Amino acid sequence: YFYDNGPSRTNGNMALFSISEDTPVGTQIYILNGTDPEGDPVRYGLTFEMGSKEYFRVDSKSGNVTLIQELDREKQHEISALVSITDGRNKVVETVRVFVTDVNDEPPEFQNLPFIIDIPEDTAPGSSIYKVQAVDRDMGSGGSVSYYLQTSPFAKFTIDGNSGILRVKPGETLDYETTPTHFVTVVAKDGGGKYKGKHQVLTSTATMTINVLDAQDMPPSFIGTPYFGYVYEVSVPGSEIFTVYAKDGDQGNPNPIHYSIMNGSDGVMLLFFSVGPNNQLQDYDVTTVTVRVVDLNNHPPTFYGENGPQNKFEVTMYEHPPPGEILRGFKITVNDSDQGANAKFKLRLVGPSRVLRVVPQTVLNEAQVTIIVEDTSGIDYEKGPTLYFKLLAVEIDTPERFSATADIVINLLDTNDNIPKFTSEYYIARVPENSLGGSSVVSVTANDPDSGPWGEVKYTIYGSGSDLFAIQPSSGLISTQPWTSLDAEVRSKYNFYVKAEDSEGKYSLSEVFVTVLDMNDHSPAFDEKLLEKTMIIGIPVRVEAVDEDAESPNNVIEYSIMTADPDNAFDINAETGDIKLKPYIKSMEIVQNITKQKHCKWSLVVQARDRGSPSFSTTAVVNIDITEATPLKGPMAAFLLKSRDNPMKALGMVTVIISLLVGVTVLISTAMYMRNSKSNRIMPARRIIKRRPRDQQPWNVNMPVVRFINPADKFRVLNQEGSHQRGTSSPRPKPPLPSAPPPPSNARSNERPRAVPTISGVLASKGSKKAKSNRRKEGNVSSALVSELKMKLEQKIIESNQGYY
User: Fold this and answer.
1) The pTM is what?
2) What is the number of other CB atoms lying within 10 angstroms of the CB of residue 331?
3) How far apart are CA 240 and CA 263, in angstroms?
4) What's the pLDDT score for residue 762?
5) Residue segments in the chain with a per-residue pLDDT below the cut of 70
6) Would you give the end-to-end CA distance of the chain in angstroms?
7) Treating both helix axes as pointing N-terminal to C-terminal, what angle do 647-678 and 769-802 enclose, rounded to 10 degrees?
8) Which residues contact residue 151 at a Cβ distance below 8 angstroms, ignoring those fewer than 6 apart?
9) Region entry Disordered: which residue ranges (predicted)?
10) What is the rounded distance in angstroms from the CA atom of residue 620 to the CA atom of residue 603?
11) What is the pLDDT of residue 644?
């Protein structure tokens, strides 16, 4: 069921709902609202009777009702519709009436149109002559009507605003001969009302035609005077020339008219008289008729110069006159000897579009021709030293269409109105390096279309990098300086500006980009001709050469092994220079089987070749010590292994680590000392570290001097814990624990000495024997690497010292 919320609400069943007729189409005007007792969702519907116009549409889900047709209360003030609500099984349909409320949208409408009134011209002033009636279909104040006349300074009528009665204005008289018909505009105005939220007053107008009936009070007269007749010069006697017309002044009841010619040599006097009853002459009128002999169109237009007819006009002037300037060098007159329409013709210029225009464009009989500049860019010496136009005069409104033509020639004088312009905004040049001084780089070109010295261009260059180049001032050829040799390895890109200037200093700029092409003029180079490398089996060593050429492929290096001793033992990466043993060489035993020597030091010749054309190469002898080490563990061992070719890096890292350890020890000792100095007594929970017996051996560190005969021996380290490794060494005594510091000096003499608390610790390994063995091996390898780094460091220091002598 629907909710019945009453006619004043905008939701419910729409019963007795009112809507204003000025509601815009598309407006949501109502919401159908209802419910289902079982709580099922409901849908809404809205239909109209068959054949009636549908004004509304409803959204079936939301119930929103929208206006879809314009309303007009004056045509339909009530709308009947069927609204429905359904839950899908049951449906309720109700018939509702929607009332359309009025707004002031209808103007007053005059009745009995058109208004045509006939009144005698002797009607007395103030007399009523007609009643105007208008109806407004709106309701209320919008339906009331009042009247008034549109004001006029010659108004002879007035109207009553309420009744609409039209009267002759008091003090005014009618005159048929002066104004036989009056047109009076009547305005009907309603009382105003609301329309779309605003107050609106509507009006209507109607024109009344008031015909004044004539009374016999006026004399006769000619119509259309003065009279002029035309006769062609070739007309034959008896040809009709002209017709005159006269009428009696009282047109309501005119008398018969008779015409006669009186006399006249220069003109013809025409007598008009009217005949009254009994054929008596009542009144008359006289006028003059002028007859003109008309010339035939038998002459074409003709152009004249200062000396008579002329068909060519020529002038010399400078280029680019300002727009609107009159070309006063031309003295042109155009004439057509015919008369009237036969002498009417048009002037126009034919030539480059919109450069010049001619004044006047339309001529009757004769005119002075004026030529005016319209587009100054078209009067350009560089586009052409001479301009040609055709001046045409063509008759209009004549069947013969006679015409005339004259040539307009303008000789131009040049001015310096252009700047030199380069043929390109920028120039790109490529020059091989090491070219001879004075070699050509690029030729720049700038054009100045001006003539004479104004068109001569001088070239100069400036900017960063331009000091290495020179330019021919007249030709624009850019070359390197005689003393310059360009080197791509030093600088491969140059850019600078080139300036083109005419004789008056007008100039333009362009930019030059020079690329020095790299030539393969450097060979790859190793740091040394003899390279010493140490290789652990399974880990490659690297050789590196440098090519000082600037670009690829000239500086791209490929590595290869030329010779090796022993042969077929090494592979090399052609791109990186990494040298490694053949895959089948996996242990020192295989190495010793190959070389049959103990020191395991092999040599090979490595070639570094660039990819340039032609290609250059260089070689170096690489001595490689082959050794074997157990697998490395721990970050320190891995770092030392990677740094075996750079001892300074390893020494620096060791120095940093030792400095950090010393700093941490100082901080801990300082903190402990400050904490103990602030305590007044020793806490029982602290451990007391007693001094060790006097017979304990001091902690001595002996650095044995190791000399290697075989290069591989540098990786053989002595075992401090047993003799299962290669070589023997005396066992290292375990160092004693550090003794406790002495008690504070401010201790009282009557107090017994107290032990000073300190930090103690014991290193104990909980790992298996295998882990201990691995740690010992790792320590052996680290010791070997340290020894090797020490030797290389000493060698670097000796070589550096030799450089100072």
Assistant:
1) 0.37
2) 14
3) 19
4) 34
5) 216-217, 252-253, 264-282, 596-599, 629-647, 649-650, 677-805
6) 119
7) 120
8) none
9) 721-783
10) 10
11) 58
- What is the C-alpha separation between 28 and 25, in angstroms, rounded? 9
The two counts, helices (H) then strands (E), for the chain are: 4, 53
Q: Strands across the sheet with 64-67, in order?
A: 11-12, 28-32, 64-67, 56-58
CB 405 within 8 A of CB 390: yes
CA-to-CA distance for 501 and 508, rounded, in angstroms?
A: 7
How do beta strands 257-261 and 157-159 pair? unpaired
Given a contact cutoff of 8 angstroms between Cβ atoms, the answer to whether 290 and 244 are in contact is no
Q: Which two tokens stand for residue 375?
A: 């587009």
pLDDT of residue 411: 92
CA angle 186, 187, 189 (to 5 degrees): 150
Residue 274, phi then psi, degrees to nearest 5:
-110, 145
What is the H or E stretch that residue 561 is in?
strand 557-565
d(CA 274, CA 248): 7
> Quick one: DSSP state of residue 700?
-
C-alpha 410/C-alpha 386 separation (Å) is: 6
Q: Give pLDDT, residue 645.
A: 58
CA–CA dist 587, 487 (Å, integer): 50
CB under 8 A, 24+ apart: contacts of 306-313: 306/331, 310/406, 311/404, 311/405, 311/406, 311/407, 312/406, 312/407, 312/409, 313/391, 313/406, 313/407, 313/408, 313/409
Question: Cα angle at 589 between 587 and 595, to 5 degrees?
Answer: 110
Please provide the size of the chain in residues: 805
**Residue 246 · residue 223 · CB < 8 Å:** yes
Tokens at 39, concatenated: 């709580």
Can you give the C-alpha Rg of the chain in angstroms? 63
User: Contact 786/715 with Cβ under 8 angstroms?
Assistant: no
- 646: burial class by Cβ within 10 Å (0-12, 13-18, 19+)? middle
CA-nearest of 15, 14, 29, 78 to 52 is: 78
Closest CA to 461 of 496, 429, 420, 423: 496
Q: Which residue in the block uniquely carries the two structure tokens 């339309």?
A: 362
Q: Rounded distance, CA 717 to CA 776, Å?
A: 11
Structure tokens at 497: 């500006």
